[in-house]
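Lecture 7 notes. Example A: sequence first, then its structure tokens.
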Amino acid sequence: METYIVQEGDNIATIAKKYNVSIVDLINQNNLENVYYLEPGREVIIPEEKAPLGFTYYTVKKGDNLYEIAKAYNISTKDLAELNGLELDEYIHPGDRLLVPEEGVMVYITKDGDTIQTIIDRLGTNREEIFVYNPKIYLLPEQLIAYRKKNEPQDTEK
């Protein structure tokens, strides 16, 4: 868990912005009663950034590489790099946090000419499932679409 030592002139909003966390999460994490004044020298716990629905964070360990991490999370190396704003040949370092899909969540990167229906057909899913994970779809090339594959009916006859 990361901490920050309050400096002269800091306030709850500047700390929240610096660490890209919500003011409410910062207040709740630290049980702050007086949010208008933070005493310099006070240690503030920075809450973990919440991953989007269907994703989690993976902390890179010594010896990790994009290929192995991608394989472990059932995502292409290219998609993993793109999801995290990395180039395929970019180095990752121990302690880096990568956004990865949760088990059963797949990703698709849109292409020029995609429509909602062509995406649904291509991915074998349905409209409801697409919009659960993607409340805003712009259909611009290279937009990440997260989804769960529709469960195929199981054959119960032997």
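Example B, a different protein, same format:
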Amino acid sequence: MLLYLSEYLIQFHSGFNVFQYITLRAILGVITALGIALIVGPTMIRHLSFKQIGQVVRDDGPESHLSKTGTPTMGGALILVAIAVSTLLWADLNNRYVWVVLLVTLLFGVIGFVDDYIKLVRQDPKGLRSRYKYFWQSMVGAGAAIFLFLTVTTPAETQLIVPFFKDVIIPLGGWYMLLTYLVIVGSSNAVNLTDGLDGLAIMPTVMVAAALGLFSYVTGHVEFAHYLTIPYIAGAGELTVFCAAMVGAGLGFLWFNTYPAQVFMGDIGALALGAALGTVAVLTRQELVLLIMGGVFVIETLSVVVQVGSYKLRGKRVFLMAPIHHHYELKGWPEPRIIVRFWIITVFLVLVGLASLKIR
């Protein structure tokens, strides 16, 4: 939005041309989203507390979580507001990629909102039934996949890039839609499963979003893409502004979500952020790199799959409790230790993912 204003003002002073640079708008996006989160956060927390929209703790969960009962939830709305406002202010709104990722993020947020509303306001601990939640996730994910496939302009947009191998690029054709659907829906649920401890999900999300922002920038820059031997995708650079907004909003939320949390993001935040990461990864052709950088999300998801599969097939559990962060809680690890160690693992995995840009 402000990009249009700067383009108009250039005729009066050439200095406004500086807003054409994606890097500057990305920095301003971080600052704007962070500022919104920090300013609006306290008011939102007070409102959620007044409405008694608080966390419901599972009876079979770790005893340490009982003290979290009643902590304001649905704070993910704060993240979505900050991301949306910052993106609309600083991104190029003529860019279809910006609208795709923003709409997917907000629609997954709506699904999460309905789930949280049923759990917390209607006091139904089951929330939105799994089949309905998955149906609506599938509708949004499949809709985005079909739209992107139908609007493809270059072969590079539907090729699968294998990290660390310069010449291994797989044309997907129609399979692109299936991969896109799986990445968006899968990453959404993976982040949601990880969101079980104070700050555990949001900081890895911030780190991965920052790295994807870098991937977006070089993918949308013809010279950098050529130098790094990655496919050039026109317009992908604008996703850097969206990723920057995610970073700012995530850090602003972490201010209130760090241990001991004053607010939880709820499904409204977790489902939306996961879908956002998946969508950006698809648009920049970095699905496999997302799998690496989001390794914590992958491990959390696999722990649930293994736990459920083992119990159904053998009648035995592999972990004391799934997702795996609860396993370590029941083994006696303090919550902050689990959180920080998972953050450290994410730092390492993000660096490995970024190394794929040069090691090819």
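Note on Example B: DSSP finds 14 helices and two strands in the chain. The mean pLDDT is 91.
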